[in-house]
Every structure is written in structure tokens, then in C-alpha cells.
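User: Some background: our group keeps a shared notebook of sequences we're curious about, and every so often someone picks one and asks for a predicted structure to add to the entry. Today it's my turn. The entry only has the sequence so far, pasted here. Could you supply the structure so I can complete it?
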Amino acid sequence: MALVGRAHNTPSYTKYTTVTGFFLQDEPSTQGSTFNYTTTNLGLINRTYDTDGEYDPDHKKTQWQRFEHMVFRLNRQSGRNVQYKLLYMGRHGEGFHNVAESFYGTPAWDCYWSKLDGNATVTWDDAKITEKGVTQAQIANRFWATAIATLKIPLPEAYYTSPLARCLETADITFSGLDIPRRRPFTPVVKELLREAIGIHTCDRRRSKTWIQEQYPKYKFEAGFAENDPLWKADIRETDSALDARLKALLDDIFNHDESTYVSFTSHSGAIGGLLRVLGHRQFSLVTGAVIPVLVKAETIYSTAPSTSIAPSTPAPTCVTNPTATTT
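Assistant: Of course. Here's the predicted structure to add to the notebook entry:
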């Protein structure tokens, strides 16, 4: 269910909390750089739940089926001002900008190369995914196919994606061709606020709405989605605090208007990092193509929202060495 508010003149805000103890990614000992979601049941911990007795007395259900019932009970027993959702947050497959940053090094990338549309070999403005990135998305597709058939994983009931090309393609490869019920088809909604940190880096400047429609005709757009990128600026970049505020607004929108319990996000390392901060999750860096599930408790608090400080956008760093000196 969506969160229900009081009278319109009552100040309120939504407080988000990660419910820990269900996924390995919640544990401090789990390292994002080496964690393999495909071999670990997406990180779902093999454990019992308080609801197992009523739901699975004969111990015949899968871990995911028992988890799904437990989440159902959490929502059923919660008050009108509390809801639980499981967010499946996937990072896009490797993009050409990722390869370029690795090649040039982050300092040279941030101060020089990220401002360009590409080099003599490749283009990375609104970067597409590489062959490796395609393979990573295909691995995700195979994982979901197996998880649906054998693990009985609850499918996303709603799909959201960043408007950047690398996420549009990753989502399409990941979820196309799966055994998805007709009542919950893979029809992702393109959300402007789900994108990567904004500004300076041309890889984070999106293409037009028309281009997206032509390439992905079954995708839908949120209301008010602009034809051309209204947010990207060539000379300043969004700060982490501004990114977090943007992603908090995204969560508020979805939790207040989407009644789905299981929701898929296809996004970026920086954006997912911001979402994790807003959700109170520990830091967990996803490699390209990786997925992290987060069980979220959202509670409407009837009070004025705590004040936050948002740092202004910043210019690109100054190169301290010649960024082209070692290139060929």
C-alpha cells in the first residue's frame, strides 16, 4: 500500500530505514568488490522467520517463498503510516566511460577526459554498454530466469530505470524474455531523478526523450519528462548532499504513489550509493552489473522534517599533471 497521510495542512515527512538481518549485503563482513549475487541467492540469508510456522509447517517452501510471506505479514500488521518494500537495485553493465576512466585514471578522467564526448577510438557521451556490459546483463537475465523457476523469487511488480543509455539497455537485456505474469509486465518507467550525479561528465548527459522512445518503444515516461536534458550543466557537478536530496525525493514519489511491494531500480554506482545513504544502509559499492536487494521500512512522521544542508554544485578539479601526456 502507499503511505496514507492526515489532513493536508499537517506537516509530515517519510523516514526510511533499512531492515537488516535478511541479506548478506547488510553484513559488515560482505565486500562489494568480490560479492557474487548469482551464487548466493541474491544474498538472501538462509534463516528461519517467525512466520514460518503458520506458512510452512511442513518445510516445503523455498527461502524466497518464506521471505515473501514474512514481508506480507509485516505489511499486513503495520499501521496505515508504515509500509515495507523490497528494492532490487541493479547497477548498469560496464559502459565505455568505465573503460575510459580505468584507462586514463580517475584524476585525469575527472579533470579532463570526462568533459569530452570521447577520444579517437570510442564515444562515451551518454555512454552505452560494452560487450562485457552486455554479458553482465545477460548473466543477470539468466539469474532471474533460474530464480523465478527454482527459487520462487518474488518478481518486481514495478520497474524503474535511469534515463541514461547504459541503464536503458541493461534493464532491457536483464528482464526481457523472462516468465513474467501478464498482469505485471516488464514495462519500465523512465525516471529523471534515478540518474547518476549530474554535470560536467558527458557520460551523464542524457539523450532526448524522442531518442529513448525510438530505441525502447515499450518503455513509459513519468509525467512531465522533458524532451531534452533539463538538469545537466557543463561547468558544475552535483554534490553528494544534493544527490541524496534528489534521491530522497525519488523515494518519496515512489513510496507515496506506487503500491508495489517489490520494486526494481536500474541505476548507477553513485545513485545507488546515494539511495543506500538515504535508506540508512551501510556503504556497499556495486561492481558493474551487480544487484543489491534492500528491505525498506518507510514511516510517515507527522512533524516538520529535520533540516538538511545541501552543498552547492562544484566545478571540475584542476589537472595537476598533463592528462594527455601518456596517451597514444
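Suggested note for the entry: The beta strands are 13-18, 82-91, 158-161, 189-190, 220-221, 262-267, 291-301. The longest strand covers residues 291-301.
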